[in-house]
Design a protein that fits this description.
The complex is a heterodimer.
Chain A: H1 6-15, E1 21-25, H2 49-61, E2 66-70, H3 80-89, E3 94-98, H4 106-114, E4 119-126, H5 131-138, H6 143-156, E5 161-166, H7 175-183, E6 188-192, H8 199-205, H9 212-220, H10 224-239, E7 255-258, E8 263-265, E9 276-277, H11 284-289, H12 292-299, H13 321-328, H14 336-349
Parallel strand pairs in A: 1-2, 1-7, 2-3, 3-4, 4-5, 5-6
Antiparallel strand pairs in A: 7-8, 8-9
Chain B: E1 2-5, E2 9-14, E3 17-22, E4 27-29, H1 34-43, H2 48-58, H3 63-79, E5 83-86
Antiparallel strand pairs in B: 1-5, 2-3, 3-4
The chains are: A alpha/beta, B alpha+beta.
């Protein structure tokens, strides 16, 4: 009998209701005011320390070993170190931490470096190398200086710090300069250009940041090797016959998302799906397995995307089902960002 | 041959199956069939030769086959840094 590979095994267990990674929104509150953020309505009661620990224990007992700790801003919670210590002591083996990087105290930094094997990556945010632009978009005075200082401290002490540079229309033309500014200080930069769109407010805010023109300008601002890599992927995808059975995105079965109230969804992009609450008496496996939405979302394949089947970019696109579902309240629709991105890249390639 | 299990490893039960996670390089491992059997023996500090004997008893394999299985497995986990072996 052929041996089952590790990824097949994890995939099989995921399909049986044992996801191995969880994105946990420990709070929806944030000290920053980034316009593109999908979290704005935070007028609800978030989980207490005890509830959050109980939720993490339930996730861990059900097989989750990798926690993606996100917010809001996690370090707004005064109990964040208690919660992370609890996770560490209760079967969570690795954590990727998403923070805007402005609220880390020396105590926080020391805690992270003391547990550098646990914290796989700490991701922080920067929008511009120009402090005026950066800090005014952030809405936090001194943000750039603080984030760079904290990221460097972590990196110098053995952690992997990544700066997420979210590209919007206002920083598109300066993204290369900002990258060079950060890289010259020894920091790694990840470009973020797709965004989670939730409702009319964000559609308005991002009106200029998701268009064909935006993505064309974005691609023209990439480094030569990056644009060549993307063009190559486009060419390869067009040369293949349609991969009808391809699944929509990676890891849907292997991951789960929990918001600050404990409500569960397949991933962070599904802002209006509620599979159940983690604190219900049912096991996590039962909650997932008994939720009809979970099965329909996780089982969908590319051939089911009726509007995409005839499109030449069929093989190329990695469609965000979460964005489609959040926008349309169903899985019938298009991921406009991906459509615009693919068309812009195609036009630059041919 | 004495051995010690790497102290950077953590263990995780996912759906009743054992996974091994190396905290130093963030890699996850899992074993199939006889691999689980041999690994459990190692975790109980059973001498390698005895594990091969146990394998003979548990599975319908000859002593030579069991010895080969154990040797190959031991080499693989040693190459992956899960266990360190020292010749006595």
């Amino acid at each position: 009998m052929a041996s089952e590979t590790i990824s097949n095994k994890l995939d099989r267990l995921g399909r049986q209701g044992y996801p191995q990674s969880a994105s946990v929104e420990v709070t929806a509150r944030c000290n920053a005011q980034c316009e593109y953020c999908y979290l704005k309505d935070v007028s609800f009661k978030e989980l207490s320390t005890q509830e959050l620990c109980a939720a993490i224990l339930k996730l861990s007992d059900n097989g989750v070993y990798h926690l993606h700790c996100t917010g809001g801003e996690p370090f707004l919670r005064p109990d964040i170190l208690t919660v992370l210590s609890f996770a560490m002591e209760n079967g969570i083996l690795a954590c990727t931490l998403f923070t805007n990087g402005t609220l880390l105290s020396q105590e926080h930094l020391d805690f992270l470096t003391q547990h550098k094997d646990f914290f796989r990556t700490v991701q922080m945010s920067v929008f511009s190398h120009d402090p005026m632009i950066n800090d005014s978009y952030f809405g936090v005075k001194g943000a750039l200086e603080t984030v760079v200082k904290n990221a460097l401290f972590l990196q110098e002490n053995g952690l992997r710090a990544i700066i997420a540079l979210t590209i919007c229309d206002f920083n598109l033309e300066t993204m290369e300069e900002t990258r060079r500014f950060l890289e010259s200080r020894g920091l790694s930069v990840a470009l973020a250009y797709f965004k989670t769109v939730t409702g009319p407010r964000l559609r308005r805010v991002l009106a200029q940041s998701n268009t064909y023109d935006f993505f064309k300008r974005y691609l023209l601002n990439l480094r030569p090797e990056e644009i060549e890599r993307d063009k190559q992927r486009m060419k390869e995808s067009l040369a293949k016959p349609p991969q009808l059975d391809a699944e929509m995105c990676f890891g849907r079965w292997n991951a789960v998302f929990m918001n600050a109230q404990g409500d569960l969804a397949p991933c962070i992009s599904f802002r209006n799906v509620n599979l159940g609450n983690v604190l219900e008496e049912r096991s996590l496996r039962d909650i997932l397995q008994q939720a009809p939405d979970y099965h329909s979302i996780c089982s969908i394949r590319k051939r089911d995307m009726k509007k995409c089947v005839q499109c030449k970019f069929y093989n190329f696109c990695i469609i965000c089902l979460g964005n489609i579902h959040t926008e349309n309240n169903s899985l019938c629709g298009l991921d406009d960002q991906m459509c615009n991105y693919a068309q812009a890249l195609f036009d630059l390639t041919y | 041959m004495s051995y010690s299990i790497n102290s950077d490893l953590s263990f995780k039960d996912i759906g009743g199956e054992l996974f091994i996670y190396n905290r130093k390089n963030s890699t996850i491992y899992s074993f199939n069939g006889t691999g689980v059997f041999i690994w459990n023996g190692l975790r109980e500090n059973v001498p390698v030769d005895h594990i091969a004997c146990r394998l003979c008893e548990e599975y319908d394999v000859t002593a030579a086959e069991a010895q080969t299985d154990v040797s190959e497995f031991v080499k693989k986990i040693s190459d992956n840094g899960l266990v360190s072996f020292a010749m006595e």
